[in-house]
Amino acid sequence: MNKKERLELANWAVAQARKAGADDVAVDIVNQRDIEIEHRNRQLDKLKESTQNSLSLTIYANHRYSSHSTNDIRKDSLGKFISEVVGMTKYLSEDEFRSLPDPKYYAGQKDIDLEILDRKYENVTSEQRVKIAKEIEDVTLASSDNIISCTAYYSDTFFNTVKVHSNGFKGEREGTSFGSGVEVTVRDGDRGRPEDWEWRTVRFNKDLASPDYLGKSAARRALGKIGQTKMESGVYDMVIENRAASRLLYSLRGPMGGRALQQKSSFLEGKLGEKIASDKFTVIDDPFIKSGLGSRLYDGEGMATKRRVLIEKGVLKSYYIGNYYGKKLEMEPTIGSSTNTVFEYGTRSAEEMIKDMKKGFFITGFIGGNSNSTTGDFSYGITGKYVEDGKIIQPVNEMNISGSLIELWNQLIETGNDPYIYSSMRRPSLYFKDIQFSGI
Fold first, then answer.
1. What is the predicted pLDDT for the residue at 310?
2. How many angstroms separate the CA atoms of 4 and 6, rounded?
3. Which of these, 243, 237, 227, lies nearest to 366 by C-alpha position?
4. Within 13 Å and on the Cβ side, how many CA atoms surround 208?
5. What are phi and psi of 202, to 5 degrees?
6. 42: region left, alpha or beta (phi > 0 left; psi from -120 to 50 alpha)
7. Residues of 40-57 as b/e, b for ≥16 C-beta within 10 angstroms?
8. What's residue 418's pLDDT?
9. What's the CATH class of domain 3-35+48-105?
10. Which residues of 266-304 are buried (b: 16+ CB within 10 A; e: fewer)?
11. Which of 184, 281, 401, 434 could form a disulfide with 277 if both were Cys (CB 3.0 to 4.6 A apart)?
């Protein structure tokens, strides 16, 4: 089924749902192909390919709402399916806030190529995919005799989606993604088996990292954890590596969402316009980054995306508000979920910031812990390196940081110039001052 046929089928499904008694309906048709490969113990351990054609219906009838999906997209089957789900929806409880977005929010969609489709996707062969995973494993195992095991990965995805709403929205998206990486475990005597990983996700096959880089980097990181220990409790400076910083940043994303705000489970409720972080902290939702992993012209509800400043120099400027919670909160909708998260970046790398540390930790990962979205309290275990007079001295593990997220973000003194571009959250390394650590 080509794109034209999918669009025609979506329009037909909308008409069928309206005929069956729906007041409004949203139809999504997805064609997606996923391939996953794992190479382990010097042999192909997993080769999985799946292709999915599915149709999803969101039904609005008499202030009632339901969502359904099917993989049988033949019209003969769909007609009965649509009639049944519309009929079932009418028995559900009323919810006055459930509706499609006002069509005014569909307007203003940019007409630009986000460059998220690798048109050479079909040229990638099964042999090439397996070879990449095998080479990653070979490089990793050759890096050290201390390596106990490793698993190398390769994956890619192609998708095409069509979205049609009964109140006027029509949209299409087509894209690809490619990923490769490896997980490594090394021996450390009686102390345990340290692990680490290296992974890259990109839109274009040509941008995948080399097997040589992935294998050597993952091995170096895991081997660098040999001899991990706890340090004394106390107040230290802290630099968080860019790829690890997502753990802290996600603790803000949930409380910024409409659901948490409406259910009174957000410590950021009522704080629009207030300072919640250091003036070094600026966060932007940018859906228009070329080849970005979160780039899109419209969101899951069909609303046109816009570049939005969420936090500006520490001041909370906006929330993630979708159509439904916008109505419940009597707030203008912004977007229900994030696209690409970018930051105001600094001028120095993590390595340069570390050189300024008299006594502190370079955090390379978090282990366990949690944050409370209602109170903003957090507690996380950490792994990383102890730093003294600008030099890395000792790998550390199983220490802990805890406290208030607002206090923590106000202790941010610098952001790095090193955004992690292999994620929709393009976070930099982060430098915090005077953080309380619990150890021995």
1. 97
2. 5
3. 243
4. 24
5. -140, 170
6. left
7. beeeeeeeeeeeeeebbb
8. 97
9. alpha beta
10. bbbbebeeebbbbebbbbbbbbbbebbbbbbbbbebbbb
11. 281
Model pLDDT, residue 297: 97
Cβ neighbours of residue 242 closer than 8 Å, sequence gap 6 or more = 350, 416, 418, 419, 420, 427, 428, 429
pLDDT at 190: 78
SS3 30: strand
Q: If residue 384 lies in a helix (H) or strand (E), which one and from where to where?
A: strand 377-388
Confidence (pLDDT) at 165: 98
Query: Whole-prediction pTM value?
Result: 0.93
Q: Hey, what are 263's tokens? A: 């259910």
**Helix (H) or strand (E) run with residue 140 in it:** helix 126-141
User: SS3 for 268?
Assistant: coil
Single-letter residue type at 146: N
Q: Which residues of the chain have pLDDT under 70?
A: none
Roughly what angle, to the nearest 10 degrees, separates helices 126-141 and 211-223?
30
What dihedral do alpha carbons 268, 272, 273, 277 form, nearest 10°?
Answer: 20
Residues of the chain with CATH 3.30.2290.10: 3-35+48-105
Residue ranges with strand state E in 207-288: 234-240, 283-285
